[in-house]
Write a sequence for this structure.
């Protein structure tokens, strides 16, 4: 039996796309093996959000070639969409961008006939429906949207992913039910700009597809990310639903209006503050965010304002990134670029603040009940724990054997999450 291995860089959308491609190969009889093993075919799903993402994508292509010089290396994703020639020069055998992923297996067949590299880079135009046809996990991603039209000053993704394309409602609802029937207990709705779901469909928006999906019993639903202006009354009302996870990831990017405007973000700090204050009426609630530090023109005073604003918002977790210059973006040639050393120091300061805020939130949750989707077993100091995710996005460690969706009492802060005492299976 032929074997295939995959490595995914970047976002949850890429993770979903990789699983969809693996499903095609599994249907053809391929055996899926870990990426660190020798395989007949390697899939690398690339990312180009930062220069570091580009570098890691190149490293993984080289690693696959080293693992099995006779193996076939397929490269897909955002980096290939914008740098196909570079990918080909690295020795990739099959190259596909952010469209045409459903054709990879056919291109593999063609390559094995004539041994000539196959490159298929086209402009994204339709939503590619690649449902995952195998699943052994209790949490799963469902991509409901692709593309972005925001053109933030720092971001290349609109150039690699194309315009907004929404997945058909019927396809989304069918996959929710199918995953539920496979034993999945939680699905995460994801997309490049998931809040714009339905923009290209008549009579649909994100709130409606969420409401319809929640009619499927015995499965809970989580959102991956929403921009501030997409957190409207309909979305907020869903926080009262028992199977809609009380966790929202709302990118901030900067805590100063001057930098937000330069970034071409369509909100200011007062708008953001009002949204967060409304959401804090719902407890428990996980509130996570993204921050970019060292954007061109960000002074020491600007960073201090961002630091103070982040602290005021009381997030439960931060994702902090140094600004990365990306060719063909508005920020690439902006004056007053911040030195790398200064960006590194600012990242460290915010990460330290984020750790403190997460600890404060975890400590405040001691003694409460939570529902946890158990995902895997973990060994810590020789002891086995069953780990999973609570509705408000806390990583929970349970020291009794359990599977599926379980009730726990959050006992204490433990590792990078909390220790949960098993109550009962839901």
């Amino acid at each position: 039996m032929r074997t295939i291995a995959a490595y995914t860089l970047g976002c949850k959308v890429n993770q979903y796309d990789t699983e969809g491609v693996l499903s095609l190969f599994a249907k053809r009889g391929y055996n899926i093996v870990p990426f660190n093993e020798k395989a007949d075919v390697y899939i690398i799903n690339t990312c180009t959000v930062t220069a570091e993402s580009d570098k890691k994508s190149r490293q993984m292509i080289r690693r696959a070639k080293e693992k099995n010089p006779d193996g076939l290396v397929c490269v897909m994703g955002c980096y290939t969409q914008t740098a196909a020639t570079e990918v080909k020069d690295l020795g990739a055998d099959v190259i596909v961008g952010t469209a045409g992923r459903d054709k990879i297996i056919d291109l593999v067949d063609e390559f094995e006939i004539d041994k000539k590299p196959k490159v298929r880079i086209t402009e994204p135009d339709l939503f590619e429906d690649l449902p995952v046809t195998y699943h052994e996990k209790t949490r799963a991603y469902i991509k409901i949207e692709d593309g972005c039209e925001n053109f933030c000053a720092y971001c290349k993704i609109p150039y690699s992913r194309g315009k907004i394309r929404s997945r058909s409602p019927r396809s989304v609802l069918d996959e929710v039910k199918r995953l539920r029937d496979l034993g999945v207990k939680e699905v995460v709705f994801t997309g490049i700009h998931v809040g714009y779901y339905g923009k290209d469909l008549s009579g649909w928006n994100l709130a409606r597809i969420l409401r319809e999906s929640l009619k499927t019993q015995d499965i809970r639903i989580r959102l991956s990310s929403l921009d501030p202006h997409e957190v409207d009354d309909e979305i907020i009302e869903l926080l009262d639903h028992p199977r809609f996870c009380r966790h929202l990831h709302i990118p901030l990017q900067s805590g100063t209006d001057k930098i937000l405007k330069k970034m071409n973000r369509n909100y200011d700090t007062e708008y953001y503050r009002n949204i967060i204050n409304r959401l804090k009426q719902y407890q428990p609630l996980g509130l996570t965010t993204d921050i970019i530090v060292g954007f061109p023109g960000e002074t020491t005073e600007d960073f201090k304002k961002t630091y103070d604003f982040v602290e005021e918002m009381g997030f439960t977790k931060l994702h902090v990134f140094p600004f990365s210059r990306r060719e063909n973006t508005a920020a690439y040639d902006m004056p007053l670029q911040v030195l790398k050393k200064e960006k590194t120091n600012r990242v460290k300061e915010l990460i330290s603040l984020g750790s403190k805020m997460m600890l404060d939130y975890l400590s405040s949750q001691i003694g409460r009940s939570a529902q946890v989707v158990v995902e895997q077993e973990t060994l810590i100091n020789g002891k086995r724990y069953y780990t999973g995710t609570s509705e408000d996005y806390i990583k929970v460690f349970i020291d009794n054997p359990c599977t599926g969706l379980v009730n726990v009492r959050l006992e204490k802060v433990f590792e990078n999450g909390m220790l949960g005492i098993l109550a009962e299976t839901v």
